[in-house]
Every structure is written in structure tokens, then in C-alpha cells.
Design a protein that fits this description.
This protein has 467 residues and is mainly α. It is built from 18 helices and no strands. Helices cover 82% and strands 0% of the residues. It is globular.
């Protein structure tokens, strides 16, 4: 009887988490708060990853040059994601803090200024991206055909990068105020539109013009743009926790500067992680294309496996911000420890599955034995670290939620640039471990990150951060 009641309650909580909850996250059960926030945030991470998968699925029908164009453009857009992530981190910290303080009017004003900041920042990439897309492809090693025939894709994606950044920012507003379900709903709508328009515009089905690779860019941009319109409807006309009014519309340079200053840490974290990934790829490339291919496939599987953990970690960020705003640092800390335990269990189970069925996962992507062997080696070694990754991710996001974006940035710098890359060179080249040394350095660096974050978190200085 008790089990049936628990199952019924679980179903109720799942439905409440994805349909929207009115729970006050500064009181009541911490475990239920973590659950109600985590479920939609995990699904949101999945929705965000689907954009790239859908685009490459349809564009691959146009040939290798089109796929390469998407790949090069995506490598440039990592800068956009870094800027968007940084602004989202800053927005989360500020809106969550004001929400916890029970100052919704101030949270609304910050929300609008964050949107303006996103638009202003996007212009830094939009203008050169729109004007010099062909030149950017050339600088990135793109072929003449790519520069001549496919630059339109790059021009649209970079020229309208603002839709990516603004989508990130407004979803951060919704999540940090406690409306994580609305963030998920926005991305579901944006993805459905993108999936529908992609084949219609790329191949010219029915009354639609055949636009080729440009159709993919237009479909993605349109999907995200309509997602933003839905976000604005929720903020201005909906009955959400954050509600914008005409009084909130204005230009406050001091608030925008505060948001941008706070975002520098989040952007720095993303850039450090991205550049270290490029450095690791450069080291791996010295062992041949088969190892590169195996490593790339393994990383894609790892990233997919980490999606639930990122969503759970984002829940910790919101809970820390809101409870610090409510003047409850002890509850904020308890939220982090509980979220850490949950994340560690979830990620450990995922890591165990990867270790036990490594070959099965790699063979889903390729059948070439020369690629499968290094792919299995990479996935198995990296998965060992899943035992500690979960704790480290929650700790890092907890600092960000408190508004302390500098501490994680320093930790990223030490662990990724001063430990991971040098260690990869030492183990793979000097000690003679080959590519195995590179894979092992990832586990060591991430473990160091967890230990360092744990030590700094226990010091408790994040509780004193004022924003």
C-alpha cells in the first residue's frame, strides 16, 4: 500500500515538475525542491542538444562540404555559446537572489536589463559575422566551394546569433525564478518548429523554396525566434513568477554593467573549457585519424551521458541563489549537499553502464575496428571518473548560483590549463602511454576539479557573496 502511494506521489511530482509548480523553493522539503527543478532542467538540456543533431541529420544529405560548413560554423558559434552561458550564469545569480529576497519587481527589472545586455553583446559577433562570413570560413580552412556556395549558412547563423543568446538569457530568468517547466516548454516549441522547417526549406518540399544549407540556418533561427516570442509572452502576458510590465522597460547602464561584469566569470569558464578541449584534440591528433575519430565518438557519448548531471547541477544553482536571497545560507548549503548526493548516484550509474557496455555504445556510431578500439579505450577510461564528476559539477554551479563566478573560473584555469594539458603531454609523450595518457589526464584533471571545488565550498565564503 505504501509503495503504491509513493508511486502515485512520484507521478504527481513528475507531472507538476513538467507542467509548472507554485512551490516556494526557500521553504518546505529540499528533496522535493531538487526533484521539481531537476526534471525539467534535465529535459531542457536534452532539447538544447537536439538542435545540432537535427540540423546535421538533414544537412548530411547535401554532401560532405555542407557538413564541413556546419562543423566550422559551429566551432565559431562556440564563442556565442560561451557568451550566452556567461550571461545566463549572471542572470541566474541575480534573478534567483532577488526572487529569494521576495523582491519580484526588482527581479523583473534585472530580467529586462539582462535581455538588453544579451542583444548588445550579440552585436559583437553579428556585425563581423554577417559582413565577413566568407572570410571567416577561409580563415578556418574552409574550401573555395564552402566560401562561395555555403557562406550563406554562416552569415545567417552568426548574423542572427542574438536569438541564441537571448533564448539562453530568458530561459535563465525563468529557471532561476523557479519556472523551469516554462524553459523546457520554450525549447520543445523551438525544436518542433526547427524539425518541421528543416526538410521543407532545405529540400524545397511543397510550396517552400529549395534553399539548401541556408534553409537549415533559417529553420534553426526561426525556431529559436518563435521560442523567444513565446518567452516574451510568458514574461509580459503570462501568470509566471517573473512578470514584466511597461515600468520595467528602460535602459539602466549600471545594471547592465553589473550583469556583464558578473557574466565574465561564466564566459571565462566556458572559454577555458573550450580552449582546453581544442588543446586536447591537438594532442590526440598526433596519434592519427583513427584515434581522433574514436576519441570524438567517445566524447559525444560522454556529453550525452552528462546531460542529466548538468540539469541537476542547474537546480543546485537556483536553490543556492534563492535561499541566499531569503537569508537562509544553511538551507542553501543543505540543498547543495543533497543535490550532490543525487547527482553522484545518477552519474555513477551512467558511468557504470558505459564501462560495462562500452563496445556496444561505440559500435552504434561506427563499425571500423581501427576506430572502435581507441573509442572503447577512451570511453572506458573517461567513464571511470563519472564517480566524481557529479559532485564537482554541483559545486561549480553552486558557486555560480551564489554569484561567485570568479572562484570556478580560477578552478577551471588551474585544472584544465595547468594540470590537464601538461599532464596529457607528459603521460602520452614522455611516459610513453600514448593516447591512453591523454584519456587518463582527463580523469585526473576532473578529479582535481572536484577536490578543489569541494575544499573551497567547505570554506563557506560563497555564503557571504553580495550581489
Amino acid at each position: 500500500m505504501k509503495q503504491s502511494i509513493n508511486i502515485k506521489q512520484l507521478r504527481t511530482d513528475i507531472w507538476e515538475s513538467i507542467s509548472g509548480t507554485e512551490m516556494d523553493f526557500t521553504s518546505g522539503s529540499i528533496g522535493r525542491a531538487v526533484f521539481l527543478l531537476s526534471v525539467p532542467m534535465v529535459l531542457e538540456m536534452v532539447m538544447e542538444s537536439i538542435f545540432a543533431i537535427v540540423d546535421i541529420f538533414f544537412v548530411s544529405r547535401l554532401g560532405s562540404q555542407a557538413v564541413a560548413t556546419v562543423g566550422i560554423t559551429e566551432s565559431i558559434i562556440t564563442l556565442v555559446y560561451s557568451l550566452g552561458s556567461g550571461l545566463a550564469v549572471a542572470t541566474t545569480a541575480l534573478v534567483a537572489r532577488r526572487t529569494g529576497e521576495k523582491r519580484p519587481e526588482e527581479a523583473s527589472k534585472i530580467a529586462f536589463q539582462a535581455i538588453l545586455a544579451g542583444i548588445l553583446v550579440s552585436l559583437l559577433i553579428a556585425i563581423p559575422g554577417f559582413l565577413w562570413s566568407s572570410d571567416l570560413l577561409r580563415l578556418m580552412g574552409g574550401s573555395m566551394q564552402m566560401q562561395r556556395d555555403y557562406a550563406g549558412y554562416t552569415r545567417i547563423m552568426l548574423g542572427f546569433n542574438g536569438v541564441i543568446i537571448v533564448l539562453f538569457v530568458i530561459n535563465a530568468v525563468l529557471r532561476s525564478s523557479g519556472d523551469a517547466a516554462m524553459s523546457l516548454r520554450v525549447l520543445v516549441i523551438a525544436n518542433l518548429i526547427n524539425m518541421t522547417l528543416d526538410p521543407l526549406l532545405i529540400f524545397g518540399i511543397g510550396p517552400f523554396p529549395e534553399l539548401g544549407i541556408r534553409g537549415a540556418a533559417i529553420a534553426t533561427t526561426t525556431g529559436r525566434s518563435i521560442g523567444i516570442l513565446f518567452q516574451l509572452y510568458l514574461l509580459f502576458r503570462g501568470k509566471r513568477r517573473i512578470k514584466l510590465a511597461l515600468a520595467d522597460i528602460g535602459f539602466y547602464p549600471r545594471t547592465i554593467l553589473q550583469i556583464i561584469k558578473l557574466s565574465l566569470g561564466g564566459t571565462g569558464q566556458s572559454l577555458i573549457a573550450t580552449t582546453s578541449w581544442i588543446g586536447m584534440m591537438r594532442i590526440i591528433s598526433s596519434f592519427g585519424s583513427n584515434v581522433v575519430a574514436g576519441y570524438t565518438i567517445a566524447l559525444r557519448i560522454v556529453v550525452f551521458g552528462l546531460l542529466p548531471s548538468w540539469g541537476i547541477s542547474n537546480a543546485a544553482s537556483t536553490l543556492v541563489g534563492q535561499n541566499l536571497g531569503a537569508g537562509q545560507p544553511d538551507r542553501a548549503e543543505r540543498s547543495v549537499w543533497l543535490t550532490s548526493k543525487i547527482n553522484t548516484v545518477v552519474l555513477s550509474l551512467i558511468g557504470l553502464i558505459f564501462i560495462l557496455f562500452t563496445g556496444t555504445f561505440i559500435r552504434l556510431f561506427i563499425s571500423d575496428p581501427a576506430v572502435i578500439v581507441p573509442g572503447i579505450e577512451a570511453l572506458r577510461i573517461i567513464s571511470i571518473g563519472f564517480l566524481v564528476y557529479g559532485l564537482g559539477m554541483v559545486m561549480i554551479q553552486s558557486f555560480n548560483g551564489a554569484g561567485d563566478t570568479v572562484t570556478p573560473t580560477k578552478a577551471f584555469f588551474v585544472c584544465f590549463w595547468l594540470i590537464e594539458i601538461p599532464l596529457a603531454l607528459i603521460l602520452s609523450k614522455i611516459s610513453g602511454m600514448g593516447q591512453r595518457g591523454v584519456f587518463l589526464s582527463i580523469v585526473v584533471a576532473e578529479t582535481c576539479m572536484t577536490v578543489l571545488a569541494f575544499f573551497l565550498f567547505r570554506q563557506g565564503k560563497w555564503k557571504l557573496k553580495k550581489i
